[in-house]
C-alpha cells in the first residue's frame, strides 16, 4: 500500500491545514461525513447566533426593529450586499441580497431582455440548470408567441461539458441576451467569464451569469470583467441555510435602467415611506429589489459571511482544490473505485468546487453511502456529486468517503437498494 492510500497521510495533511480550526464553527454530526455542501451547506454557530439576534430584535423592538438594534432591518439587505460584493469582485453598490435565484432571474431578464429588430434571441446552453430554462422561456412567451422559437441552445459535445468557442459562435446579430452558469451544476466545469463577456460585448450583446455553484468556492471579478448582471443563491457554498435570501449583481453602467419589475423595496430609501404611487428608483443594485426582505432568512448570512471575511476566498479556493485533487488521486489509487468515470475537468482553471462521478448504479450507490454515514448528492440518471467544502471538510473526510466507496463497491452492498431516485435528490 502506498503512503497516499493510508489514513496517516490524510491526517498529516490535516495537521498542515491552516483552515482546520474553522470546522469547529459548524455543526457536524458524529459518524457522518457530509460532502453535499454544493446542495446545502452545513449550519454554522455564527449563522445560528445571527438568527437568534435578529429574532431577539423582533421580541425587543417590535416595529422599531426596522430602524433600531444591532442589525436594523431597513438596510440589512444593503449591508449583506456589501459583504457579498467582496466575494464576487464587485463594487458594494452593484450587489444586493434579495429574493431567490429564480425571482432574481425573472427581475433581470425583465430588465435586460428587450427584443428589438433582429435582436430577439436569448442564448443559453443545454446543460444549464432547469430553473434558468423555465425563466428564459417565460420571458420569451411574454414577448413572442411561444417560448422556444427565439431560444438558442448551445449543445454539449460530450454531454457533460461545454466548448466556449461553441458558445461564442452562437453570439450573432440576432442575439439580445446570453445567460450561462459560471460553474455547471453537474460536471462542475468552470467557464471563463471574462472571455465570454468580452465576446458578447464585442457583438453588442448583454451577458449574465448564474453563480449558484461558484459563489463561496471560487473568486470572481465581475466588475473588472464587465459582466452585465449575475444572480446566485446563498445556501450552498455560502452556508446561509435552506431558503436563505439570494443575491444579484448589476454593473454600474446599468444603474440608470428602470427595473423590469418594480416593487416598493426598490424605492429610494428616503422616499420609500412617502407611499407615492409613482416609483422613485433607489440607488444601485438596491433598485432591483421588489418586496419586503425575508428577515429571518436573511439573518443567517450575517454570521455565515463573517467566516469568509476572516478566511478570505483565495484561501478557500486553495484548500478546495487540494481537497478535490486528493479525492481524485485516492479514487485512482484503488481498483474498486477506478470503475467511476470522472466527468469534472481536471485542470484547476476549469474546475469548480465539486467532483461529478458517473456510474450506472449511481442511485443505489448513493443510498449505500448514506447508510454507511457518507452524505453525497445523486443526480439522475447516473451521477454522484461529491463536494468537500474547505471551511468544514477535512482530508480525513475525503479519505473516509473514498474508503467507504471502495468497500461498497468491493462488497457490492449497493445491490441491497433499488436503483431509483427518491422524491428529493
From TrEMBL:
Residues annotated as carrying N6-(pyridoxal phosphate)lysine in the record are: 236
Q: Which GO terms describe its biological process?
A: anthranilate metabolic process; L-kynurenine catabolic process; L-tryptophan catabolic process to kynurenine; NAD+ biosynthetic process; quinolinate biosynthetic process
Q: Report which reactions are catalysed by this protein.
A: 3-hydroxy-L-kynurenine + H2O = 3-hydroxyanthranilate + L-alanine + H(+); L-kynurenine + H2O = anthranilate + L-alanine + H(+)
Enzyme Commission number(s): 3.7.1.3
Query: What is the required cofactor set for this protein?
Result: pyridoxal 5'-phosphate
Q: Does the keyword Hydrolase apply?
A: yes
Enumerate the UniProt keywords alphabetically: Hydrolase, Pyridine nucleotide biosynthesis, Pyridoxal phosphate
The pathway entry for this protein reads as: Cofactor biosynthesis; NAD(+) biosynthesis; quinolinate from L-kynurenine: step 2/3; Amino-acid degradation; L-kynurenine degradation; L-alanine and anthranilate from L-kynurenine: step 1/1
Q: Which SUPFAM superfamilies match?
A: PLP-dependent transferases
Tell me yes or no: is Hydrolase among this UniProt entry's keywords. Answer: yes
Naming one, the record's GO cellular component terms include:
cytoplasm
Q: Which residues make up the binding site for pyridoxal 5'-phosphate?
A: 101-102, 129-132, 210, 213, 235, 264, 292
Instruction: Name a GO molecular-function annotation.
Output: kynureninase activity
Q: What does this protein do?
A: Catalyzes the cleavage of L-kynurenine (L-Kyn) and L-3-hydroxykynurenine (L-3OHKyn) into anthranilic acid (AA) and 3-hydroxyanthranilic acid (3-OHAA), respectively.
Q: How does it assemble?
A: Homodimer.
Q: Which family does it belong to?
A: Belongs to the kynureninase family.
Q: What is the name listed in the Swiss-Prot or TrEMBL entry for this protein?
A: Kynureninase
Organism expressing this protein natively: Shouchella lonarensis
Q: What is the lineage of its organism?
A: Bacteria, Bacillati, Bacillota, Bacilli, Bacillales
Amino acid at each position: 500500500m502506498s503512503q497516499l492510500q493510508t489514513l496517516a497521510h490524510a491526517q498529516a495533511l490535516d495537521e498542515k491545514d491552516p483552515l482546520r480550526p474553522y470546522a469547529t464553527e459548524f455543526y457536524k454530526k458524529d459518524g457522518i461525513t457530509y460532502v453535499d455542501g454544493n446542495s446545502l451547506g452545513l449550519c454554522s454557530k455564527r449563522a445560528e447566533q445571527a438568527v437568534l439576534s435578529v429574532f431577539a430584535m423582533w421580541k425587543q423592538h417590535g416595529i422599531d426593529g426596522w430602524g433600531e438594534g444591532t442589525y436594523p432591518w431597513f438596510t440589512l439587505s444593503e449591508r449583506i450586499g456589501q459583504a457579498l460584493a467582496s466575494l464576487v469582485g464587485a463594487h458594494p453598490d452593484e450587489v444586493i441580497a434579495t429574493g431567490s435565484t429564480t425571482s432574481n432571474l425573472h427581475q433581470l431578464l425583465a430588465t435586460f431582455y428587450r427584443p428589438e429588430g433582429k435582436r430577439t434571441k436569448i442564448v443559453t446552453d443545454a446543460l444549464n440548470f432547469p430553473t434558468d430554462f423555465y425563466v428564459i422561456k417565460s420571458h420569451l412567451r411574454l414577448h413572442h408567441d411561444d417560448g422556444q422559437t427565439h431560444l438558442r441552445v448551445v449543445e454539449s459535445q460530450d454531454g457533460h461539458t461545454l466548448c466556449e468557442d461553441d458558445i461564442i459562435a452562437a453570439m450573432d446579430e440576432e442575439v439580445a441576451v446570453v445567460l450561462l452558469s459560471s460553474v455547471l451544476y453537474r460536471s462542475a466545469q468552470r467557464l471563463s467569464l471574462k472571455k465570454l463577456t468580452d465576446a458578447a460585448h464585442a457583438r453588442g450583446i448583454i451577458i449574465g451569469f448564474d453563480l449558484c455553484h461558484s459563489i463561496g468556492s471560487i473568486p470572481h471579478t465581475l466588475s473588472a470583467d464587465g459582466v452585465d448582471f449575475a444572480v446566485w443563491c446563498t445556501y450552498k457554498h455560502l452556508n446561509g441555510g435552506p431558503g436563505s435570501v439570494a443575491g444579484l449583481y448589476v454593473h454600474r453602467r446599468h444603474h440608470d435602467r428602470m427595473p423590469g419589475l418594480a416593487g416598493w423595496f426598490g424605492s429610494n430609501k428616503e422616499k420609500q415611506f412617502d407611499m407615492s404611487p409613482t416609483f422613485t428608483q433607489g440607488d444601485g443594485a438596491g433598485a432591483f429589489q421588489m418586496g419586503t426582505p425575508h428577515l429571518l432568512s436573511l439573518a443567517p448570512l450575517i454570521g455565515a459571511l463573517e467566516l469568509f471575511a476572516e478566511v478570505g476566498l483565495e484561501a478557500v479556493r486553495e484548500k478546495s482544490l487540494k481537497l478535490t485533487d486528493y479525492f481524485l488521486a485516492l479514487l485512482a489509487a484503488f481498483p474498486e473505485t477506478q470503475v467511476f468515470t470522472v466527468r469534472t475537468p481536471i485542470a484547476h482553471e476549469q474546475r469548480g468546487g465539486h467532483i461529478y462521478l458517473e456510474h450506472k448504479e449511481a442511485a443505489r450507490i448513493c443510498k449505500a453511502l448514506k447508510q454507511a454515514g457518507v452524505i453525497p448528492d445523486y443526480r439522475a440518471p447516473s451521477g454522484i456529486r461529491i463536494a468537500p467544502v474547505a471551511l468544514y471538510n477535512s482530508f480525513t473526510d475525503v479519505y473516509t468517503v473514498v474508503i467507504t466507496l471502495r468497500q461498497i463497491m468491493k462488497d457490492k452492498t449497493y445491490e441491497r437498494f433499488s436503483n431509483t431516485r427518491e422524491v428529493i435528490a
